[in-house]
Amino acid sequence: MKRREFLKKGFALTAVGTTAGFSLISLLGKSRRLYFRPPGALAEDDFLAACIRCGKCIQVCPYNSLKYADITDGLHAGTPYFNFRRTPCYMCEDIPCITVCPTDALDHTLTDINKAVMGTAVITDREACLSLNGLRCEICYRACPLIDKAITLKKHQQTITKRHTVFEPVIHKDVCTGCGICENVCPLDETAIRVLPSERGDKAGHYIYLKEQV
Known about the structure:
Structural class: alpha+beta
Number of domains: 2
Helix content: 25-40%
Number of helices: 6
Distance between the termini: 49 Å
CATH class of the largest domain: Alpha Beta
Order of helices and strands: HEHHEEHEHEEHEE
Strand order of the largest sheet: 1-8
Number of strands: 8
Shape: elongated
Strand content: 15-25%
CATH topology of the largest domain: Alpha-Beta Plaits
């Protein structure tokens, strides 16, 4: 094979490989989802620098809520995260995940779990929410460990029939810890309430994007 032909074929194969690579990256990007760090976690860059991937916080969790990011998650591999739809943070009073952390990846000055900020709950699908459709669901409200503080109910008349009262869950972002219990207990196949990143100043940044867990 002549040198010119060889180079042309080499470039063609490289282009195909590059395109396939970008397609794979694009596919992975579409399947990524938001997950959250343990209570007291530093902002993500600082957390990754401080966490030594010892797994102690995961092992000590009494509810098996924390999971390991796996090797395909790159720099995040071996670090702890919550999949709230599967298992939320049940807000242990003694916060064992922080107690056993050998570094400052989890803030040891956080001693009151009610002061934790992992994220904040948001009703992300108002059209699907059963309570907002006039049904007495209220499951997220009643499951909230800070009931009548982080989530309250607002009563107003149903606008279509004007015969029923709607009990709308209202999330108070200045109190919500982002524990994910409301997301976990939502009875819909696609939850109408999710934990999203908090905007509470330096308390934000306790989340990561990983490939979606099935």
